């Protein structure tokens, strides 16, 4: 029997770990989704534009993280590192375009061009900090999953706006992410506290980022001169 008083790296049963993971992702992601679903189309387009740069950078970063898993072959059995590598690529297939027709970055790009948007943004991106090669695995995965939820939510909101159906039921691959973290926990390469801390940091940052975008857009519209009614 596992010791129920232990936590973090001592979570050894997949069921208990999965329950904790789902609880974490559900609680934080719902707050972000509520914000996205309550904004109007123009605000959504502005946020999409600001997310575009990050979505592009994410593909290269994901491949570098996959390489980190492959490189664990020096400290873990080959079968274990191969399993990590395979599961991570499967979980990120939407980004890399391995199993689907279109990537996050492409979808965001096409969404922008369905309508003209006057605003252009050069927003700072979280990608370098999330996927930094020196970042502990727990923080990488926590930030990665949070960012995946953010991009999926934007894609789903755009899909509703464009009357597309392909993205409406898409969700992060919880099984793959759970399996990856369970292996890393078991081999003491990750702590769940790191996952949770980075996940919450990214979700809070992005929620503030979205609200700031909406406020900026609203203030610009409020200060714009009224349209000329003369003929």
Summarize the structure.
With 231 residues, the chain is mostly helical. Helix content is 68%, strand content 0%. The N terminus is likely disordered.
Overview of this structure, please?
By secondary structure, the chain is an all-alpha fold. The protein has a domain at 12-97. The protein has nine helices and no strands. The chain has helices at residues 14-37, 41-71, 78-91, 93-96, 104-113, 127-130, 137-161, 174-186, 192-223. Helix 2 packs antiparallel against helix 3 (78-91) and helix 2 (41-71) runs antiparallel to helix 7. It is elongated and about 70 Å long. Residues 1-12 have low confidence and may be disordered.
Percentage of residues in strands: under 5%
Query: What is the SS-derived class?
Result: mainly alpha
Instruction: Please bin the fraction of helical residues.
Output: 55-70%
Report Rg. 20 Å
H/E element order: HHHHHHHHH
Question: What is the approximate shape?
Answer: elongated
- Unreliable spans are 1-12
Q: What is the number of beta strands? A: 0
Q: Please outline the major beta sheet.
A: none
User: Terminal Cα separation, in Å?
Assistant: 82 Å
Question: Average pLDDT, to the nearest integer?
Answer: 82
- The number of helical elements comes to 9
């Amino acid at each position: 029997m596992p010791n129920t008083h232990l936590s973090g790296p001592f979570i050894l049963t997949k069921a208990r770990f999965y329950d904790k993971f789902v609880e974490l992702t559900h609680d934080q992601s719902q707050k972000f989704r509520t914000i996205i679903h309550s904004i109007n189309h123009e605000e959504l387009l502005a946020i999409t534009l600001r997310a575009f740069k990050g979505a592009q950078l994410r593909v290269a970063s994901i491949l570098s993280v996959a390489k980190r898993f492959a490189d664990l072959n020096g400290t873990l059995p080959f079968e274990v590192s191969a399993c990590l590598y395979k599961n991570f690529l499967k979980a990120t297939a939407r980004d890399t375009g391995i199993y689907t027709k279109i990537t996050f970055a492409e979808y965001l790009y096409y969404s922008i061009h369905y309508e003209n948007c006057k605003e252009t943004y050069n927003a700072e991106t979280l990608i370098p900090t999330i996927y930094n090669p020196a970042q502990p695995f727990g923080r990488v995965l926590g930030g990665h999953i949070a960012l995946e939820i953010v991009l999926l939510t934007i894609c789903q909101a755009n899909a509703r706006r464009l009357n597309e159906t392909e993205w409406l039921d898409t969700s992060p691959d919880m099984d793959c992410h759970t399996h990856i973290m369970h292996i890393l926990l078991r081999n003491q390469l990750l702590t769940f506290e790191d996952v949770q801390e980075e996940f919450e940091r990214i979700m809070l940052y992005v929620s503030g980022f979205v609200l700031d975008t909406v406020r900026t857009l609203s203030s610009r519209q409020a200060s714009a001169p009224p349209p000329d009614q003369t003929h």
